[in-house]
């Protein structure tokens, strides 16, 4: 017997139209080796729910809805009743007559049965028709107390009782689950929210109860999103850039001091974030590959969404950028002074080449001890650049060491050790180059911008080698500075759009391998020092999986390749049954799962993101 008061507070039966029961609980199969790549790893079982047919239900039930079924765990001491929560992954109708139809039956009879069955779907006849749903447990229990207004959500797997009644959580419960803790932390006042991004921190609306025209907003903990890294994955045309610009816009509007560094190899964000870049309250800088003299040049060199390709209104926005001095260009130094870390890395390479020559290793040890001793004596760190005093010192030590241990004059080690003094000219010319530099930004100057007032730095450089070298230098230097200062705030988010360019798999070589390794280091160590990362790509198969495993939040759009979905399932612990639903997504629809940034830990959420182009259109209309 249903407890009506309980149903009204926590569940919905769509006006008496929903009556369902759990008909089967099937343990998830877990294979060995390659089999685990296609079975999914999150759910311990799959559940089948049978629902009495009603003609309206197929339009009301949606994938992503949450179902509660009583489980085998006993009541709590306070009398709380426990329900297993599960997420609907599929919904489909069944007709008794059509189910018994065989392909071997007489063809005219098949068509006769099919034709007569069509009118049945419009009738409320549960004797002939039924609705079936598959659902995946989300590893949470719902505990309902008889004397409490609010329920409790408790993490942990529980086995639902087969044949028990299935209840669908209502809109109020969904809002409570996903948003209550975030609203309280961010201090959001629901009645004061507006539709525009500046006045509303929501990312979009949850894809539930859309047939009833309900709009349940979804809020997210931006600080945890940034500090613990996130990823955006979708095939071409899925809306990655739109979502990413939407997220960055909300972060900059609704956090007091988070900074963003955006590595934009496709050169599209000077337009997608034009409203933010020209906002007087958000100090920003666009750094391009070459000097830009006019708004027309900027208009022609940036990529825009199709509907805005010929929209000349953007010219006024670019003029504002130039007038306010928010556009610069990167100046690649001709003379690069090595760091103390570079010296140690070069010695490490020499050590690898000299492993079969003990006297070479003795010379390397002497030089290495001298470098480390000098750094310790003068309070230096590996990210600092060497100066003349150090070069003169180490040149003498290295030359003496290779002569003392009789290193061959034809060896690479001897050549390296006896040519350190050549760096004196490099240091001199580097200093002269800095003094003569006009208008451009070096790596050191970009770092100074980051540690200044700027909150958004958009580095739009199409040359892959140049931008990868910038990624290596900027992330390494910033991580070293934070370590040296034991600094955590302000949080800095490094965004890698088209991430396959920055974190390819470790089978790559040269600058690609060095960049991938450095970004992996940033993701592994950065959260301890307030440095976050965002990875956005459509080509998961080519990424460094060690880097992917550092992400704590994932936005997943349409991924047509089975390998990509399997990689997501095994890496991020999202059930394959839920991931299959993403194949039906339209642009702007996402599956969101987070270990730390949403109101419910590691619970997949179907999301319809707000359209960033609406913000751009409103901005352009005001120009």
If you compute it from the alpha carbons, what radius of gyration comes out, rounded to the nearest whole angstrom? Answer: 30 Å
Distance between the termini: 62 Å
In terms of quaternary structure, the protein is single chain
With helices defined by DSSP (H or I, 4 residues minimum), what is the helix count?
24
Q: Provide the helix percentage.
A: 25-40%
Largest sheet: 13 strands, mixed
Which geometry do the CA atoms define? elongated
Poorly predicted sequence stretches spanning 5 or more consecutive residues: 1-5, 31-41
Taken together, the total number of domains comes to 3
Structural class label: alpha/beta
Mean pLDDT across all residues, rounded? 89
- Looking at the overall shape, the CATH architecture of the largest domain is 3-Layer(aba) Sandwich
The CATH superfamily of the largest domain bears the name P-loop containing nucleotide triphosphate hydrolases
Note the beta-strand portion. 15-25%
Report strand order across the widest sheet: 10-9-21-20-19-11-18-17-12-16-13-14-15
Number of strands: 21
Q: State the CATH topology of the largest domain.
A: Rossmann fold
CATH class of the largest domain: Alpha Beta
Walk me through this protein's architecture.
By secondary structure, the chain is of the alpha/beta class. It has three domains: 166 residues, no CATH class; 233 residues, Rossmann fold (3-Layer(aba) Sandwich); 94 residues, no CATH class. 39% of the residues lie in helices and 20% in strands. It has 24 helices and 21 strands. The strands form two sheets. A 13-stranded mixed sheet has the order 10-9-21-20-19-11-18-17-12-16-13-14-15, sandwiched between helices. A six-stranded antiparallel barrel has the order 2-3-6-5-4-8. α13 runs antiparallel to α14 and α14 packs antiparallel against α15. The protein starts with a helix and ends with a helix. The N terminus is likely disordered.
